[in-house]
Design brief:
It contains 13 helices and 9 strands. The chain is of the alpha/beta class and about 325 residues long. Bound molecules: NADP nicotinamide-adenine-dinucleotide phosphate. The site of NADP nicotinamide-adenine-dinucleotide phosphate has 29 residues, from helix 2 and helix 5.
């Protein structure tokens, strides 16, 4: 990019719909880099809108999303996926011709469908997903560095305007992301295994442990020698801790991910269950070599993640903050 281009903002007016972890991080990153002339924001609650203004990452805040998007060159939807239809319906008639509408949602097939359904002719819909996050939510949780050295996947199709796409990709690069292009349905299958299934496993194991603790407590009431209460939390450093961190992720966001990416998650869950049964069998039959081979292979995968520098403080799957 030429020096002269860099001196002016990428977009004159950017509207962010949803001002939580991701929306407020994007606003902060845009502001830090002077990448937008004006940053307008909308969130559902007055509390979030007021707090966002007070935190200082917006130029204007609007109770009506239509007012936020009016005259915007770029609109980025940063709400949970379940709110998209209502947001798109509310903003569609007020979009500026030639504007780009994108998003940050964790599933992309449904977003591509929603854009096709709601966006008027002459508005460029380009779904996007920054694969970066923490388990925290809300405008206070955001920070400008969130996207640095993290992948941002854009899912254009054959009808996408090349100029609008390259401008949006440049913006994500300017906030520190490594931009990749991918087919929307392919994105959903890849993320089902790398992000959605790990969250499902974390939600399951933490729920199972909580049930077990409840049972142990009831047994303890009958027999004082059995267990000490709170053992699950007390000994959580033994691997369980990382699951509790992931299982602490936002319930609404993840409810929407699983109801939206249903097919791909069910496919990956089926594969996972087969492999789990294979490991269960190896344990039952004392097949030590098989277990060691399996664990050696997975250790190599971990090394690959480290080499790609995707295992740092902010892990690339949603909800995976401050690891290691
Ligand atoms: P968040 O911190 O919970 O923030 C959500 C924001 O959306 C809040 O400002 C909320 O407003 C607003 N909102 C909710 N429903 C709305 C509606 N109907 N109309 C207008 N605003 C509404 O969520 P987040 O973590 O930033 O996630 C946002 C999106 O990013 C999700 O689609 C998620 O899949 C995706 N994503 C998340 C992560 C992650 O790690 N968290 C990573 C990558 C992508 P109020 O505060 O007023 O309720």
């Amino acid at each position: 990019m030429a020096e002269t281009d860099r001196a002016k903002p990428f977009y004159e007016r950017v509207a962010l719909i949803g001002l939580g972890l991701i929306g407020s991080s994007l606003a902060r990153a845009l502001r830090r880099g002077a990448l937008a002339g004006h940053i307008a924001g909308h969130a559902r609650s007055e509390r979030t809108r007021d707090l966002s203004l007070k935190l200082g990452f917006l130029d204007s805040v609007h109770a009506d999303p239509a007012d936020a998007v009016r005259e915007a060159d770029l609109v980025v939807i940063c709400t949970p996926l379940g709110a998209y239809d209502a947001v798109l319906e509310a903003v569609a008639p007020h979009l500026k011709p030639g504007a780009t509408v994108s998003d940050v949602g964790s599933c992309k097939g449904s977003v591509a469908d929603g854009f096709a359904r709601w966006l008027p002719e002459g508005v460029h819909g380009i779904p996007g997903h920054p694969v970066a996050g923490t388990e925290n939510s809300g405008p206070e949780a955001g920070f400008a560095e969130l996207f640095e050295n993290r992948y941002c996947i854009l899912t254009p199709d054959e009808t996408t305007d090349a100029g609008a796409l390259s401008r949006l990709a440049d913006l994500w690069r300017a906030v520190g992301s490594l931009v990749e292009m991918m087919d929307a349905r392919h994105h959903d299958r890849v993320l089902a295994i790398t992000s959605h299934l790990p969250h499902l496993i974390a939600y399951t194991i933490v729920g199972t442990a909580a049930d077990l603790e409840g049972q142990l407590k009831r047994e303890q009431a009958d027999d004082k020698r059995l267990v000490e209460t709170q053992e699950v939390i007390k000994y959580s450093a033994g691997g369980f801790r990382d699951f509790t961190r992931i299982a602490g992720s936002d319930p609404v966001m993840w409810r929407d991910v699983f109801t939206t990416n249903r097919e791909a998650v069910l496919e990956m869950l089926g594969r996972f269950q087969e492999d789990l049964v294979a490991l269960q069998r190896a344990i039952r039959w004392g097949e030590a070599d098989k277990l060691e081979d399996w664990f050696t292979r997975t250790r190599e995968i971990r090394r690959g993640v480290l080499e790609l520098r995707q295992a740092g403080r902010f892990l690339p799957t949603e909800g995976n903050g401050e690891a290691e």
